[in-house]
Amino acid sequence: MIRNSFFLRGGLLLSLSLLVTCCTEDLLDQIPASDLSSELFWKTTDDAVYAVNGVYQANRTTFDRDYYFDGAGEFVNTRGTSNNQGTYNPSGIGSSGNFGFLWGDCYRTINRANYVLENITALQASISNPTDQAQLTRLVAETRFMRAINYFRLIDLWGDVPYFTKKLDGNAEAYSLTRTPRAAVKDSILADLAYAATVLPERYSGDNLGRVTQLAALGFRGKVNLYWACWMKNEGKTAEAQTHYTAAAADFKKIIDKNIPLFRGGEPGPADNPNYWHLFQYFNEYDPEIIFSVQFGGPLLAQGEELMRDFGTRNTGNAQCWVAPTIRLANRYQLTSTGDFAPALIASRNTTQVNSATNPKSYVGRDYRMRATMLWDEQKMLRLSTDGLNVQDSIPFRFGSRDGVTYINYDGAPSGYIFRKWVRQTGGIGRSDGPQDIYLMRLPDVWLMYAEAVNELNGPNDELFTLLDRIRRRGNLPPLSRGKFASKAEFFKAIEQERIIELVGEGHRFFDIRRWKKLEEIWPAPNGQVLTDSQGTRIRDEFVNAPERNYQRYYIFQIPTNEIEANPKITQNEPWL
Known about the structure:
By secondary structure, this protein is mainly α. The protein has helices at residues 11-21, 45-63, 96-126, 130-158, 170-174, 182-199, 214-234, 238-256, 275-278, 307-311, 327-330, 368-373, 443-458, 462-473, 488-503, 509-516, 519-522, 548-555, 561-566; strands at 76-78, 290-294, 323-325, 374-375, 380-384, 391-396, 418-419, 438-442, 529-532, 538-542. Belongs to the SusD family.
């Protein structure tokens, strides 16, 4: 065992019992009233902890592959998914055939949360010990947090959704549900997060590491407010947008004022072994920079993640390289000498041509995070045995080479690049049995969201420049030019740049594009764009000659058709009619 995450002591068994006893055809994956009867369970605080751990495990199912959403942006290509769920490409995302499972994942967590909350409330009435009461109150806060972020995912993807806060009494009640306006759901989400922020501790230690904290509640309340502000701005509701930008900034500021350090002080580290890479290895997953993550418990515990399988290659534990960077991402890494962009790479097979994407010299002197995030031609990485257990020699990557002996086998990733970020360089762990927690929110994300909210309200100031400069420092980049980025519009470009580079491979870009309403700017109608590999070969068309409805469908997903068939009161989103 690599380490002992809190939920490993029973959460899985509870989750399995819930799944086995559920009627899988129920509208919203309900939990029967007979499940875990209070006569046999729900007697002690240990029972409550056990049950809440099961909610954590359900929540993990919702968010465990958020990184795939980067494939619906312009900087990452996905060639499919290792779990055969969804098609993550810009012009094909959103249909219920792809993402109906996420609707079910969210409601599974919500149903478990409601079930647990009802039973903890009953348990609180029977327990008088102040210590036990305090623990139960904390568990309620953790559960309400997880219910909140699942409802947030629902309104983000689907808009108005059925909303309920109690265990449903069978299909009759489930079939009576209608779609609640997302504004009302948003208010309830914020209420749950506000409660969590007042109850939970700032941080945990020991066996409780990884549980929801006050910082996580503040961070996600700020994020919900920020997203709502963006949505209202897009609808022309300026006053409401300003109110939520202000609320978002206030929540993020509470975290900033804690003076939490970046990983390894935010220093870049050596050029050939940057600190940024080490942050995405399981042995650093509890660094203070991590605000909230979903927990994994590999190896050999049936609770492992598949980051290696998705990001690695055949030479790293027989992985499959489902996710890969693109030439567009390579072009976003700035020069350490100037802090500005290098000349655009030329997609070419000519390995000696100046600025050719296949010429290793074209990448010299870039942001250190590039070396930590991706490999280009002739960049080396350690090779692991096919079972992932033994570290072998270090060999270079060369796009197009599949021998796996002299060069790293790219295993069908067609972009011309592969990821280094998230790829383990230690043995003893199978490709689908990793211990790495997946980060849902990190400190730089908070800083950048704060900068966005304040910039929107008042424009840039010294505090915002300092925050962005601290993030850029980990890439060994010079500070931003105060003159060049003095306006709101130009400073927003600096924020966007850092979100692209700092958060790539973590599932943020797709959601940023949608809340900023940037789809038509990135892929303008009618011609869209064609994505090529580093050698100039076409990978995919993106909104090429696409109808307007395809653009609309990017912004709001299709309600799963089986939900509407079961309950006609749940109406379909207009772009999917």
